[in-house]
């Protein structure tokens, strides 16, 4: 596989993981979810996903103001969607590049 193809595959993986995290957190509303549970959700699609990878993508979503993260002393992250994160998942606002949200079809 070419280096360009590998870069594209890595980008697609990151963007899909971000979308799956948002969807999982939407399902978990209003309680939110902890990082080990989110890892198990992502591992259903990407069995080789790691806690570090999930945290990196959660940090990206935090920077985009789509999630909030509370870090416990036991190193477990508790995550929730922000109002803007809910709007992204519910397709009420446009999504910027970096998240592989599927196209909306009304039917």
What does this structure look like?
With 107 residues, the chain is mainly α. It has a single domain, classed as Arc Repressor Mutant, subunit A. 50% of the residues lie in helices and 11% in strands. A three-stranded antiparallel beta sheet has the order 1-3-2. Strand 2 (67-71) and strand 3 form a beta hairpin. Helix 1 (3-27) crosses helix 3 (51-63). The longest helix is centred in the first third of the chain and has 25 residues, at 3-27. It is globular, with a radius of gyration of 14 Å. The termini are far apart.
As for the number of domains, it is 1
Low-pLDDT stretches: none
Please report the total strand number as a whole number.
3
Report the major sheet: 3 strands, antiparallel
| Shape field | globular
Total DSSP helices: 4
CATH domain fold name: Arc Repressor Mutant, subunit A
What is the CATH superfamily label? Winged helix-like DNA-binding domain superfamily/Winged helix DNA-binding domain
CATH architecture tag = Orthogonal Bundle
What percent strand? 5-15%
Ends distance: 37 Å
- What is the helical fraction, as a range of percent? 40-55%
Structural category? mainly alpha
Mean pLDDT: 95
Widest sheet, order of strands:
1-3-2
Helices and strands, in order, run as HEHHEEH
């Amino acid at each position: 596989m070419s280096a360009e193809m590998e870069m594209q595959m890595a980008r697609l993986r990151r963007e899909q993981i971000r979308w799956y995290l948002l969807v999982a957190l939407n399902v978990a509303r209003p309680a939110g979810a902890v990082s080990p549970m989110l890892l198990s959700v992502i591992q259903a699609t990407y069995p080789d996903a790691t806690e570090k990878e999930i945290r990196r993508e959660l940090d990206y979503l935090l920077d985009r103001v789509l999630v909030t993260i509370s870090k416990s002393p036991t190193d477990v992250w508790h995550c929730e969607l922000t109002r803007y994160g809910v709007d992204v998942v519910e397709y009420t606002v446009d999504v910027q590049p970096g998240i592989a949200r599927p196209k909306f079809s009304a039917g």
